[in-house]
Design brief:
Elements lengths: L2 E2 L16 H11 L6 H7 L6 E4 L7 E2 L12 H5 L1 E7 L5 H10 L4 E5 L13 H6 L10 E8 L3 E6 L5 E6 H9 L20 E7 L5 H21 L2 E4 L2 E5 L1 H12 L6 H31 L4 H30 L4 H27 L11
Antiparallel strand pairs: 1-6, 2-3, 2-11, 4-9, 5-6, 5-9, 6-7, 7-8, 10-11
Length: about 375
Amino acid sequence: MIETISEDGFLKEVPYYLPCFIPLLNEKLKRSGFNSSISLITATALLELPCVTVGNSNNDAKIEYWKSMDLDYSFCTEYMGVELNDYNVKDSEPIEFIRSKLQSGDVCIVFGTPYYLPYSHDFLSEHFISTFGQSLVGVSDHSILVYKIDDKSVWVYDTTPNVRLEKVSIEDFLKFWRGNLYVNGLEYIEDKSRMHEYGCLEVKVGNNPSEAECRMLIESSLKTLAYEYLSGPIIESNGKKLYYGKSQLTWMISYLNEIDPNNNEEMEKAIDLYFELKFGRFFIKDIIEEVLNNEPSNELYIILALGYEAIVNNLNICSLRLKKNKVKGNLSESDLDYMKKSISYVLKLETELLSDFYTKTDNVKMLEKV
């Protein structure tokens, strides 16, 4: 027996750098009649707020993008009036749970491990095991959306790292759905709070905001970003220091000043951190573009857009040079100097852009803290 929800309307192009659950949540919200967009979710999550976490040594440093709650902001959907609950399906027949969801006309977002997804580049990959938890989202399961099922297979919508509509056998799907907890080699992971067994996401939608209210929420998020960026808070959490906003970049410059250009391991670590600086700026650029799609003559956002275009171009050009020299095994002190100059340029321009934006948005409220 086939149960299916139409895949019409699924986004076929999704930025590769988005956390996997965001496009799926957006899809589920839109199908519930909610006035959602990917930029609304990323903005209210403050994913665009730069942060670097540093442990006992600089070798533990990591660029991260899910750290706004450490500054006492709510999870993104709370600002949108949407309640999310992740839970483990306890049914003895979890496939019947999905079947019943689809029968009711609802798509189903589930969590699992790409290690057992046959179409994934992480399928049975030793590299996946050895690098697990080192991505920008840290230790977490992979999210996919189920929209069709029969007696032998399920059909899924997966957007990371690229959009796929795939048919998966129920046997392989159940291996995926049991999650990373059951992947041999991941027993060493200490924090398993974001790892599920037959995990599922429940979404409860409240009042549907108007388009004007959504735009105001995005503006509030950007105003909050500007404030936190310029403040540059530095806090301690779970034995690590978190550097936000401009403090992220000033820490990066001081860190690069301590790098020995003749130490290949130190250079490669520094380059890996540098590469990841661009993702937060991608988020900001995307959010600004959505505002301009609705308000193409908004001068304040045109200035922001041009500025972040320059910032992203600068980071991309430097990244290409570093990647080329890294592959050739030809890293030198000039590459280190190039990174410092690039980061100094970004720090100066970003500070000017966000200071101007903050000053000119007196009438916009910031997101409230918990």
